[in-house]
Write a structure and sequence with these properties.
Blueprint (H helix, E strand, L loop, with lengths): L1 H6 L5 E6 L6 H13 L3 E6 L7 H7 L4 E4 L5 H8 L4 E4 L1 H7 L6 H6 L5 E2 L13 H10 L5 H8 L1 H6 L17 E4 L7 H4 L6 E6 L2 E2 L1
Parallel strand pairs: 1-2, 2-3, 3-4, 4-5
Antiparallel strand pairs: 6-7, 7-8
Helix pairs in contact: 2-3, 7-8
């Protein structure tokens, strides 16, 4: 399928779920390298239900991101520190499936950046509410508001290979911005979980 996908420009990335009973580390590497030959950027979902060497494979294949990471260990953290692969936490999936939590606090304390994403899908994370994801980051993962905001904006943009276009309010980037209702500080965003705080949304400079 990959030659057809590349020819018709149907995808930008190639993503593999490296996990027991799904794709092995060896199969993951084979698929990612095949995608690279057709210009597709590697991404990996790994270490969610068990440790399957998905992080190691992601780093070896120069994946832009590796997601889930519930079973990320100290060796994995060391590998990620010496790579350009963004570790991406998916709080909604861990919450909905009642899994052990990825070591997000340990990663940051070790000097790693992390990204946050919703993993919005009907099977394991039926919520795209990033406000709730940031709330989980502060409450369950023991991160501070600055850390979850960075994880949900500029670091997530990097994980999608889009940080030159979006992810921060910067001259030269797309004007994708939201304006909140009056709040005491940006720390109120993860604090007021479940609350609708957004007053205005601006996408590509246009108000919605």
């Amino acid at each position: 399928m990959l030659p057809a996908i590349a020819k018709e420009k149907l995808a930008d990335y190639i993503d593999v779920f490296c996990e027991k009973n799904y794709f092995s580390a060896e199969e993951t590497k084979e698929i990612l390298l095949a995608g690279l030959k057709h210009g597709l950027t590697p991404k990996v979902h790994a270490e969610q239900l068990s440790h399957s060497n998905g992080i190691k494979t992601a780093v070896e294949c120069k994946a832009i991101s590796v997601d889930h990471l519930e079973f990320c260990n100290d060796d994995d953290i060391a590998l990620l520190k010496n790579s350009d692969t963004m570790p991406t936490i998916l709080p909604g999936a861990a919450f909905f499936l009642n899994l052990q939590l990825p070591p997000a606090r340990k990663m940051i304390d070790a000097g790693l950046p992390i990204a946050f994403a919703s993993d919005y899908n009907p099977g394991s994370s039926p919520s795209g509410n990033m406000n709730f994801m940031m709330s989980l980051g502060c409450i369950d993962y023991k991160l501070n508001p600055e850390e979850v905001i960075n994880a949900s904006t500029i670091n997530s943009a990097y994980a999608m290979d889009l940080s030159k276009e979006v992810g921060s309010i910067t001259i030269g980037k797309k004007a994708n911005i939201f304006i909140t209702k009056p709040i005491a500080s940006y720390g109120y965003i993860p604090y007021a979980f479940g609350s609708s705080l957004i007053e205005t949304v601006i996408i590509n400079g246009a108000k919605f």
